[in-house]
């Protein structure tokens, strides 16, 4: 039986211009299990988004942000870092590996760096035994 | 506003484990301001509960909703259509909100997710300070708008105890002395003479010590 790809959701700041050439979908398709979400600033990601991502079935989530001093909105990158840390505290509280959430400053337009990060993150996630099997939980609003 | 804190997840789980479906209801007023019960926090808690059940491979229905106010009937009706589909409601409202939900939805267990702490203000982002006990006889006008009942650990009404050091409270050195604040404020206002007036001891019968309080205004009734 074919191995199920590790499901990873990546929230990346638009100002990193990782896919300025419009090849985001190609990048996604070539890496099964990967979901890329472009956000206007990494500061838009909040703790509940990250926990909802895991509850929705992802094995891990990455937030890719600009360097703190390069943030177009001044505080977005710094706030995002704090929020990822806060979400990791919540994961600890419920006994789930906090390393399932990662915050990384990435150089702008560097897809090679993104590949390296994804490779390492996938290895980390695959080392965890328990999976947030959120498929059992019905969500509604 | 009312200031509250989130209970620990194991305590919440202990109270809701017996139900198959739970409606998590936030309150977007006071408890949103103190960052424990608004829309964001409701979504966060609901996701955390889903994950905690998922981790144990248990199947549950966890739904989230948020009311603008959980202590007013007109707003409480906002979740009326969702309530019958669930076994219980987990409230992120203060104690008043929890009890208001229980009064309206009489056939549903209402579980509190918060510990309600006090009436206070947002001193700065992430810091909430108690500054009103709701004693029922406000005398802030005499004390430069600093409440000796709340801000003085000894609840002294006619001057400082003499034990404070460097403007810090003798009982809790990590908080400022209430009377130091009163004196500085009245001096700055040029109204230190207000302290010459004797203030009688607090009559606690108008506080909660006199039992649950109720305000009835005929002009406001329908």
Describe the protein's architecture and organization:
The complex is a heterodimer of chains A (141) and B (222). Chain A is of the alpha/beta class. Chain A has a single domain, classed as Rossmann fold (3-Layer(aba) Sandwich). Helices cover 35% and strands 18% of the residues of chain A. Chain A has helices spanning 24-29, 47-55, 76-93, 111-126; strands spanning 8-13, 34-39, 60-65, 101-105, 138-140. A 4-stranded parallel beta sheet of chain A has the order 2-1-3-4, sandwiched between helices. Chain A is globular. The mean pLDDT of chain A is 90. With 222 residues, chain B is an alpha/beta fold. Chain B folds into 2 domains: 2-118, 3-Layer(aba) Sandwich (Rossmann fold), CATH 3.40.50.2300; 133-198, no CATH class. Chain B is 27% helix and 19% strand. Chain B contains 7 helices and 7 strands. A 4-stranded parallel beta sheet of chain B has the order 3-2-4-5, with helices on both faces. In chain B, strands 1-6-7 form a 3-stranded antiparallel beta sheet. The longest helix of chain B is centred in the first third of the chain and has 17 residues, at 39-55. The two termini of chain B are 26 Å apart. In chain B, 34% of the residues are buried. Strand 5 of chain A pairs parallel with strand 3 of chain B.
């Amino acid at each position: 039986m074919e191995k199920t790809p590790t499901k990873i959701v990546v929230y990346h700041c638009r100002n990193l211009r990782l896919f300025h050439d419009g090849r985001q979908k190609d990048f996604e398709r070539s890496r099964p299990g990967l979901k890329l979400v472009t956000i206007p600033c990494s500061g838009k990601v909040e703790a509940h988004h990250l926990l909802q991502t895991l509850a929705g079935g992802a094995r891990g989530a990455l937030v890719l942000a600009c360097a703190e001093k390069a943030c177009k909105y001044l505080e977005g990158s710094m706030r995002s870092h704090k929020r990822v840390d806060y979400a990791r505290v919540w994961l600890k509280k419920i006994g789930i590996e906090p390393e399932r959430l990662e915050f990384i400053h990435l150089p702008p337009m560097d897809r090679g760096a993104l590949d390296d990060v994804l490779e390492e993150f996938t290895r980390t996630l695959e080392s965890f035994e328990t999976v947030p099997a959120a498929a059992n939980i019905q969500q509604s609003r | 506003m009312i200031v509250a804190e989130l209970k620990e997840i194991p305590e919440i789980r202990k109270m809701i484990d017996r139900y198959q479906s739970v409606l998590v209801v936030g309150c977007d007023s006071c408890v949103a301001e103190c960052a424990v019960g608004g829309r964001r926090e409701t979504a966060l808690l609901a996701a955390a509960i889903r994950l905690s059940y998922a981790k144990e491979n248990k199947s549950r229905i966890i739904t989230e909703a948020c009311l603008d106010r959980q202590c007013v009937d007109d707003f409480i009706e906002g979740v009326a259509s969702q309530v019958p589909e669930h076994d219980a409601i987990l409230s992120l409202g203060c104690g008043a909100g929890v009890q208001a939900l229980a009064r309206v939805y009489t056939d549903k267990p209402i579980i509190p997710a918060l510990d309600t702490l006090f009436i206070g203000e947002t001193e700065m982002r992430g810091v909430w300070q108690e500054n009103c006990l709701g004693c029922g006889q406000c005398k802030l006008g005499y004390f430069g708008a600093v409440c000796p009942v709340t801000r003085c650990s000894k609840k002294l009404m006619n001057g400082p105890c003499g034990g404070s050091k460097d403007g810090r409270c003798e009982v809790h050195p990590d908080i400022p002395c209430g009377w130091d604040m009163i004196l500085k404020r009245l001096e700055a206002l040029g109204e230190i003479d207000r302290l010459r007036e004797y203030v009688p001891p607090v009559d606690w019968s108008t506080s909660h010590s006199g039992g649950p309080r109720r305000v009835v205004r005929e002009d406001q009734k329908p």
